[in-house]
UniProtKB/TrEMBL annotation:
InterPro entries: Ig-like_fold. The keyword Signal applies. Coiled coil: none annotated. Pfam families: He_PIG. This is Ig domain-containing protein. It comes from the Bacteria. The keyword Signal applies. Keywords: Signal. Residues 1-21 form the signal peptide.
Length: 146
C-alpha cells in the first residue's frame, strides 16, 4: 500500500513538471493575492478640505503595476467626501459637511495580465487563473470627521 502511494505521488510530481515549467509551479504554490493595507485614515474637520489615499497591491507579485485594479466602495463615506481611482490608488477628497464616524468597505478586484515575464525571463501565461489564486478582497476603513 505504501509503495503504491509513493508511486502515485511520484507520478503526480512528474506530471506537474511536464505540464508546467518549474517557475510556473512555484507561481502556483506561492500565488499572487490582491491586498488592501490596514490603515488608520486621518481625522477630518467639518468645512475643511480633506484628502487621503489607500494604495492596493498584489502580494507575492514582483510587479504590482502589471495588474489591472478595480476599486469600489460600499456606502458610508462622510457627506461631502467622494472618491476616485488612480491606478492602484483610491483617493478620497472633498469638504466634509457633517461630523461623525463613518465606516465603509473598500472592494478590490484585479485582472491578471495574460502573459508576463517571470524572473527567469520565460513567458508565463495563466489566462484561466488556475495558479494565481483569488482575485478579490475587501477591507473596512473608518473616517472620523470632527
Amino acid at each position: 500500500m505504501k509503495r503504491s502511494l509513493k508511486i502515485v505521488a511520484f507520478l503526480c510530481l512528474i506530471l506537474s513538471f511536464t505540464v508546467m515549467a518549474c517557475g510556473e509551479l512555484v507561481d502556483c504554490i506561492i500565488s499572487a493575492k490582491p491586498t488592501l493595507p490596514p490603515k488608520t485614515l486621518r481625522i477630518g474637520q467639518v468645512g475643511v478640505a480633506y484628502s487621503e489615499t489607500i494604495q492596493a497591491s498584489v502580494k507575492n507579485a514582483p510587479n504590482d503595476d502589471s495588474y489591472i485594479y478595480y476599486l469600489s466602495i460600499d456606502n458610508g463615506l462622510p457627506p461631502g467626501i467622494g472618491y476616485y481611482q488612480q491606478g492602484r490608488k483610491i483617493i478620497f477628497t472633498g469638504t466634509p459637511t457633517a461630523a461623525g464616524t463613518h465606516t465603509f468597505k473598500v472592494h478590490l478586484t484585479i485582472d491578471y495580465p495574460d502573459t508576463w515575464e517571470d524572473d527567469d525571463d520565460d513567458p508565463f501565461s495563466d489566462s484561466n487563473n488556475i495558479c494565481l489564486g483569488n482575485d478579490t478582497t475587501s477591507r473596512n476603513y473608518t473616517i472620523v470627521i470632527e
